[in-house]
């Protein structure tokens, strides 16, 4: 069959139109929302939202092509070519359709990030391509065994469920076999875990090999053995992996500004690094003038050196969050006893103390911060800021000390602390 005839008669062309429309119209928002501007690994990670839909399209088209062969009784007419030689020319356009759908998703992410995918993470796209091949071949096998009218719809449902549902299970490792958590990759401070690339490559490669053996009518034990071996081996690679398949980024990539105190180390993709460093030093200087211990260095790296504090989290540092980040460096972490006993009576002091520290840093009335400082916390901190400096410091020291353990209640009333 001529290539032009093959492409014109394939179901992949029409399916690609629907897949592209779905990606551009319905998936572009979730893809772009999680993409980090300027950070290449996040481009490939957020394109993974398309996997279940592209896999469903590949499985449905593969089943449709198989059903066409059954209707024409092609395989029952003693053809001169083998079964693989007949099937593969029909399935290559289907696989290409799925890969094209993933490329469209990558293009959407590239437009949001303003950068191309990172070369070090291109293995993620190889995973996408191999998953599309696995869905195509599995759909073809289903189409040869299911009722003809139901083959494509049932294969579509199966392709979607088998790639989308593992991500919702409480057990984390099955999702990593189908790249079901790639959307966690990558914030600016993280990279993909290599095991999260090798596991789906091995798993999808096992499915592809088993399907090819089944199409060629090899002995049943061969595809079954390949599928079981690939499943066990790939599961072994990720059985202990957490929900997010990422690792901390190499700290050598940090750009450190040592022109003042504190030293400020940020990832190179951070926008307005000089402005953030200057703002951090301004706020730190005001906290230091108030007699508070300010760290000598602030970094986005999660592994800290002695005397160094972190900005918190793996995401971008924003100027509006600097005061809260600095406040967190001065407040004690949640103690172990609170995590074990679930009892932490001093916790209500954390919001007012954060608000008071931000007020000191900004020289402005404290404002509510969603999830950190409530309006009541901000009002209380504003009252404390009207007191003499020694009374303020006594209020802060008393309540900060309560946060270090699980047996003390806070003294939030500014008239009662320090007297």
TrEMBL record:
Presence of keyword Manganese: no
Domain spans labelled DUF7224: 264-406
Coiled-coil segments: none
Pfam families: DUF7224
Domain of life: Bacteria
InterPro entries to which the protein is assigned, alphabetical: DUF7224 (IPR055648)
Keywords: Membrane, Transmembrane, Transmembrane helix
Transmembrane segments: 12-31, 43-64, 84-110, 122-142, 149-169, 197-216, 223-241
Keyword match Transmembrane: yes
Full protein name: DUF7224 domain-containing protein
Organism of origin: Streptomyces wedmorensis
């Amino acid at each position: 069959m001529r290539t032009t005839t093959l492409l014109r008669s394939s179901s992949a062309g029409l399916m690609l139109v629907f897949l592209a429309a779905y990606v551009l119209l319905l998936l572009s928002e979730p893809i772009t929302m999680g993409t980090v501007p300027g950070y290449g690994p996040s481009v490939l990670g957020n394109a993974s939202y398309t996997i279940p839909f592209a896999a469903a399209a590949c499985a449905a088209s593969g089943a449709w092509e198989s059903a066409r062969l059954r209707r024409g009784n092609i395989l029952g007419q003693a053809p001169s070519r083998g079964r693989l030689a007949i099937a593969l020319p029909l399935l290559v356009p289907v696989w290409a359709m799925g890969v094209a759908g993933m490329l469209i998703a990558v293009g959407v992410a590239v437009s949001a990030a303003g950068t191309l995918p990172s070369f070090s993470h291109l293995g993620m796209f190889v995973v996408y391509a191999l998953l599309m091949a696995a869905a195509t071949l599995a759909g073809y096998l289903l189409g040869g065994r299911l009722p003809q009218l139901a083959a494509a719809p049932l294969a579509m449902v199966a392709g979607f469920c088998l790639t989308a549902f593992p991500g919702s299970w409480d057990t984390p490792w099955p999702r990593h076999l189908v790249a079901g958590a790639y959307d966690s990759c990558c914030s600016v401070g993280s990279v993909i875990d290599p095991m999260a690339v090798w596991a789906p490559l091995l798993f999808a490669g096992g499915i592809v090999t088993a399907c090819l053996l089944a199409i060629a009518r090899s002995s049943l034990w061969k595809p079954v053995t390949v599928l079981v071996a690939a499943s066990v081996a790939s599961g072994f690679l990720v059985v202990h992996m957490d929900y997010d398949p990422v690792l901390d980024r190499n700290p050598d990539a940090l750009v450190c500004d040592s022109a003042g105190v504190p030293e400020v180390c940020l990832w190179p993709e951070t926008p307005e690094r000089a402005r953030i460093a200057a703002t951090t030093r301004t706020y730190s200087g005001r906290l230091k003038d108030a007699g508070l211990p300010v760290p000598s260095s602030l970094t986005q790296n999660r592994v800290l050196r002695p005397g160094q504090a972190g900005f918190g989290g793996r995401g971008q540092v924003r100027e509006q969050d600097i005061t809260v980040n600095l406040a967190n460096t001065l407040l004690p972490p949640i103690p172990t006893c609170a995590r074990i006993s679930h009892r932490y009576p001093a916790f209500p002091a954390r919001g007012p103390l954060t608000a008071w520290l931000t007020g000191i840093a900004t020289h402005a009335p404290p404002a509510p911060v969603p999830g950190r400082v409530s309006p009541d916390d901000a009002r209380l901190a504003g009252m404390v800021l009207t007191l003499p400096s020694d009374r303020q410091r006594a209020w802060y020291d008393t309540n900060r000390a309560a946060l270090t353990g699980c047996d003390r209640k806070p003294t939030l009333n500014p008239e009662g602390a320090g007297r």
